[in-house]
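A note from the maintainers: we've had questions about how concatenated examples are separated. There is no special marker in the raw files; a new sequence line simply starts the next protein. For clarity in this README we add a label.
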Amino acid sequence: MATDDQQVLVTGQADAPASFRVPGNGQIQPKAVYASFDGTSAVGDFLPALKIISDGGETVGVYPTETAVVAGASADVSWFPGVKPFAQQAAPLIKGRQIYFESEVGQSIPSGVVTALVFSTFLSAPGSVPPFGPLPGVSNPLTFVNFGDVLLNLVATWQAGNYDRYVEVNAPAPIEGVAVLNRKRGSLAPDDTIQVVEAQVSGSPTIPTVVTLNVFQASGANKTCDAKLVLYGLPYL
């Protein structure tokens, strides 16, 4: 089932700590928060963290990653409600950012054609256990062949302009009996220049789960798109 959620672009670039205040008497229920941390000027290792403060000024919670980012390095981090460290009796996939894909820089997306993202970079943090069987390299679709649940966070950055576009996670094969099609769609700049979509999938060696990561645009001309995919989860091997 396709879902359309409102995305809030907090800031383009800002020194830490970057912040967002809910305007007026509004209320929000965050489904995910994404931030890119540039540690080029960091003098020491650091833990990316999300801090939530109530309207009364009291700290509700602070949510750091489990692993530090070394000085001089950078990290793309996402927070999801309900995600927490898993028990250590099984090999964990979650340790901050563990499985990470990056698409071709400036991949050309033709108008009116649903296009699979082409990944050019694959990084796996030490100690992570991928839920694919053999490492998939930079493949798309992804095939999940081990038992386990995985959270996918896909971020697409489009060429600026006002035109219809979307990014989606598509798994037509049943996942616990339910097909997955999560899509973020919009047509305005700057609100839809960056689009984020999340999905949860389950792997199985009996019936492998195949997930395709697609983009689409209808501007009437080719447009460029960069994308990053981060996977979190716990395969039960």
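[label: protein 2]
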Amino acid sequence: MARLETRKDPQGRGRAVDKQARLTAMQRQFDPSIDGYRCYFTDVPLELAAGTRRSAEWAHRTAGNESSVVLACKLVNRMQTDLTESEFEALVKALARRFEGEPFDESAFPPDR
């Protein structure tokens, strides 16, 4: 069953899908050694079946920019939410340092949009 697109742009219209960007992402992320796709962020093999943390989802490297789509595992895509790729990377690195016992670098916390 095809997914019903319910997200809207700022004017309330249905969001357009950049089919070419999605095809390009799929071509770049396909790994013939596993006959499947790998997560852009983690490089783990993606599962095509829905409902797992490794399920493939479309993620935007830049929030809202349909031409910046990549395939990501569900867990990481949900963690990224509306952050840009660089904001997400900075936040994850700051969290990793915090888990190692260092103070959290609040400058890595992205501003509200």
